[in-house]
Design brief:
18% strand, 4 helices, two-stranded antiparallel sheet, two-stranded antiparallel ribbon, alpha+beta, 27% helix
Length: 166
């Protein structure tokens, strides 16, 4: 059982130690340590807040055209839970691809998820900055209406990604 030091009396039956009354008494039993304050006191530095301002203001939003996934509106995720939240969101995209690939005549060829890591410049906390799911589905080409729809989508989406750096 683990409990906070100083709140209860505790005993360590091994190593010859029997009982210690308070946290300050326990610290005084440690040898080879130079005290930094008055005896029987603990010096504790100022505790920093759990999240810095940058982490508090960070929001996540989905950029795909799938309407049935989470994070369609900007939402805050703490750095500690960013891995779980982004992973589960990307799994929603994979589930959609699996259901689309399992339709008659369609075949899901591949699906991959990439998580992007980053470090907060203010507090140095590592977090998952985002994710990307890539899927390849082979569609049934026997239906002429489906072929027309795919070619129309292709012409609309052509050139939508623009890399200003290159």
């Amino acid at each position: 059982m683990i409990s906070p030091v100083g709140y209860t009396n505790y005993a360590i039956p091994y190593a010859g130690v029997t009982a210690v009354g308070t946290a300050a008494t326990a610290i005084n039993k440690v040898s080879g340590v130079t005290p930094i304050g008055p005896k029987d006191t603990l010096i504790v530095g100022k505790a920093r807040s759990s999240e810095c301002q940058t982490c508090k203001e960070r929001k996540y939003v989905d950029q795909s055209n799938e309407g049935d996934v989470s994070f369609k509106t900007p939402s805050h995720i703490s750095p500690e839970s960013s891995f779980a939240a982004v992973s589960s969101h990307e799994q929603e995209h994979v589930s959609n691809a699996i259901s689309e690939g399992s339709k008659a005549g369609n075949q899901l060829l591949s699906s991959s998820v990439t998580l992007k890591m980053s470090v907060c410049p203010e507090c140095g906390t590592a977090y998952v900055a985002g994710g990307e799911t890539r899927t390849t589905i082979q569609y049934n080409t026997a239906n002429p209406y489906e072929n027309s729809r795919k070619s129309a989508e292709g012409s609309l989406l052509k050139g939508i990604n623009f890399d200003a750096v290159a």
